[in-house]
Design brief:
The chain has 434 residues and is of the alpha/beta class. It has four domains: 127 residues, Rossmann fold (3-Layer(aba) Sandwich); 107 residues, 2-Layer Sandwich (Transcription Regulator spoIIAA), CATH 3.30.750; 112 residues, 2-Layer Sandwich (Transcription Regulator spoIIAA), CATH 3.30.750; 58 residues, Beta Barrel (OB fold (Dihydrolipoamide Acetyltransferase, E2P)), CATH 2.40.50. It contains 14 helices and 20 strands. A five-stranded parallel beta sheet has the order 2-1-3-4-5, sandwiched between helices. It has a five-stranded mixed beta barrel with strand order 16-17-18-20-19. Strands 6-9-12 form a three-stranded parallel beta sheet. It is globular. The N and C termini lie far apart (46 Å).
């Protein structure tokens, strides 16, 4: 209580870039700041401290992070805290910026204490604090209505294009009992959707508990909720996991990272699967659930990618009819193997190939969503905008839905019938409550 009184009137702002794991960590930190007496305000407003939870997965992510840091630094004498993967990858650059506190991923959990110490006139020293990867609190629904649970950190795959193992560290899995307790507390707080997240979640293993057993234990929790799995690698998945996809609490949606449809490129990327194995996996899922939503990531312009390699990617994307394709142009990351490879692709070719994949993705997304017109979805209300006369949320297949508000509450389920598909690059489904 004394802490709340001491911080009464203090304002804190967040900018989050990158992955769902960053989103979860920001949600948790924002809740802790509120409990400590701070007011969370938009990043564009005046604040006593600005927290940039950063990303460094591509050059574009670096630019966005630098832009956010500069925007915050221009707002007077406020403290700028930079944490996340950019802070790991560009420590020297950040240490030369006055008024900026750099906090690595392993100590991100301590940001509240570090900001509080600074505002009391102390000189915080993050490097002296103990690493703490998992003890994030269950967040209040400040930014999101879905509650995420972090089950692991780090990655041991070392794909040749990826900087993440160098900035997030080696793979570490969280104790199952802590994960289950976190989810139960989230459900007690009123959340209706739980999202399992981490860096490489399909490789989760703690003692005798692997990923499939953990998901099974989460699905056995007796409550009215649905479970969604965040972005994952299409390897290490067993028969037990595929059977769980038909559980009534499991959302029929997976984001399985493809990256390339070329067998040659997948080998150069050091991926842990082949294009044929990936296609078989998708076929196996849709044979049992034809409407299952599979979304993916694709990298174009990887070093040495020929027209034939790119054509194989386009062909596989057309064949698999993804619900959404997140397209990346290959971005050189210093320290990775791919950065040292010959035959780097020109930016103009990358842009052209990216646009081709985006067009394929738009067509397949529209086709996939159109099949739900006239059918029902269980919508989770995430936002109600009375001025626009619209309540928005997502169905169980991770489809964006909009209905006219009729007394529904945020963070509640409502069964709706889809009536119309907007004709845009990211089509929204219009619906009416049943």
């Amino acid at each position: 209580m004394a802490l709340e009184l001491a911080n009464d009137g203090r304002r804190i702002a967040f900018q989050t870039l990158g992955c769902r794991l960053n989103q979860f960590e920001t949600d948790s930190l924002a809740s802790e700041f509120e409990h400590a007496g701070y007011t969370v305000v938009p990043f564009e407003e005046h604040a006593d401290a600005y927290v940039v939870n950063s990303c460094t997965v591509t050059n574009k992510a670096d630019r966005k992070t630098r832009n956010s840091i500069h925007r915050a630094a221009r707002r007077g004498d406020a403290l700028v805290v930079v944490t996340g993967c950019f802070a790991e990858n560009h420590k020297r650059e950040l240490q030369q910026q006055p008024g900026t506190l750099t906090v690595d991923n392993a100590r991100k959990r301590h940001v509240v204490d570090l900001v509080d110490a600074h505002l009391r006139g102390e000189i915080p020293q993050p490097q002296l604090l103990q690493p703490d990867l998992f003890s994030y609190s269950v967040p209040e629904p400040i930014f999101h209505t879905r509650s995420m649970v972090k089950i692991q950190e780090g990655c041991d795959n070392y794909c040749t294009f990826c900087i993440i193992p160098y900035v997030r560290g080696r793979a570490v899995s969280r104790e199952p009992s802590e994960i289950l307790d976190h989810v139960r507390r989230s459900l007690d707080r009123g959340y209706k959707e739980i999202v399992v997240t981490g860096v490489n979640i399909s490789r989760y293993r703690y003692a005798e508990t692997g990923f499939s057993l953990l998901i099974e234990q989460l699905l056995e929790i007796d409550a009215d909720f649905r479970l969604r799995i965040s972005s994952m690698e299409p390897d290490s998945l067993d028969d037990r996991f595929f059977a769980l996809l038909e559980h009534p609490r499991m959302s029929p949606h997976l984001h399985l990272c493809l990256q390339s449809g070329s067998e040659r490129m997948l080998l150069k990327m050091r991926r842990q699967y082949s294009a044929a194995q990936y296609a078989q996996m998708v076929g196996r899922i849709r044979a049992r659930q034809p409407d299952f939503n599979i979304t993916t990531d694709v990298i174009v312009g990887f070093p040495g990618e020929t027209e034939a390699d790119f054509a194989a990617t386009c062909a596989l994307c057309r064949e698999l009819q993804f619900g959404h394709i997140h397209t990346f142009s290959y971005s050189r990351r210093s320290g990775t193997r791919a950065d040292r490879m010959p035959d780097q692709i020109a930016d103009s070719i990358k842009r052209e190939r990216s646009e081709q994949v985006r067009r394929i993705g738009t067509v397949s997304k529209q086709r996939y969503r159109a099949r739900f017109v006239g059918r029902c979805q269980r919508m989770l209300i995430e936002q109600i905008d009375e001025q626009l006369g619209c309540a928005r949320g997502y169905g169980q297949h991770y489809l964006p839905l909009a209905i006219e508000p009729q007394g529904q509450q945020r963070n509640s389920f409502v069964t709706v019938k889809v009536t119309q598909l907007d004709t845009t690059d990211d089509p929204l489904l219009r619906a009416t409550p049943v």
